[in-house]
Amino acid sequence: MHSPSAGTRFVDIFLPARGWQLLLKLPGRIADNSIVHKSAIVLGLTLALSVVPLAEIGEWAAGGSSDSARASASASVAPPGQNAESRVLALAPMPMNLLPAGSYSPAGIPGYTVSRTVPEVRLQFTVADEHGRLRHDLSAEDIRILDNQVPVEHFNDFAREENLPLRLGIVLDTSDSVKHVLLDEKAAALNFLDRILRPQSDRAFVMGFGGEVRLWQAFTADRARLIDAVGRLHQPGWGTRFYDALYAACNEYPSYGDESTLVHRAIIVLSDGDDTQSFHDLRDVVAIAQRGEVQIYALALHGEKLMSRTDAVLQRLAEQTGGRFYVAQSSRDLEGMLAEIEQELRTQYYVSFRPQQVTPGFHALQVQVRTPQKTQVHARQGYYAAAQ
Fold first, then answer.
1. CATH, domain 110-161+350-385, list 3.40.1350, 3.30.43, 2.60.40, 4.10.240
2. 384 forms bridges with which residues in the sheet?
3. What is the pLDDT of residue 198?
4. Which residue among 150, 236, 298, 333 is least crowded, i.e. fewest CB within 10 A of its CB?
């Protein structure tokens, strides 16, 4: 083997200290680059997906079931020493997410339609006056709903529902960008759970996200277990998978129609809305929330002078799913806003009707109020129907 010259050894030994520092930091800086991260993720997934057909062929040849293999591969297993209630959620990417922005319409993508027909559309919404006070005095004659711009002629049911059983998801951002307000977020979440949850009828789960998406507590009526999960929650890995977390949170709910009674589904997410490495995107989250009738309430904690570019993302999530978006400038504001959400969750209008046109794909919904006063309506902006 050729040995290095004395001159080479001299340079190696007496390289200035700053040069060594730059050399040592170079790999870290390359690894921190988001493009490198996503390229590595896509390459890894491509290799992993190419192995799946071979594994299934082997399974078939051995007389086994590929379904059982997939089920065991997708199951979440808690690492040794980790609380059994906490599990890291593995999320597969959606191919449509790799397309350039604006190159597809959700209504035209098969993955965005539900796998069943929609015999009845169910819609929950709130109506407030121009000062933000909830209206409780409206009748069916005061409400007009447009389904793909066509007025709904008949409501199967209309009511002002109070105290519906809640199915809540508490989703907390634990990434570096919000770690300075994490303690405030956790304190507000603990207070909210302690105040709103009724064990005899309500259920909730706790999820946290950073570089990983982790379910710290699955759906339960046990307030103590939920509070303990919020207390244990910490930053799970480098990065921010905001969209993946909300997509996974919507997946925690049973399929449409699986619950025998009418319940109110809502996710409370405390985050700045920033995302660095999700497989899913905003359109994916809005679509799965609308399909599952899940309202998203988004809260950001930052000063008025530090308005984030991602506030528009949080606002769009809330508007399109029938939730609300709040910006809190202090932990005290955060508690007051959660109290407003509690009131809104407990009192909403409920309407059901048969689709005006049973056409597959996305149906835009619009709720109008026939009153002379100015009103604010919060309702999800559409639903998905499958082919007959």
1. 2.60.40
2. 362
3. 92
4. 150
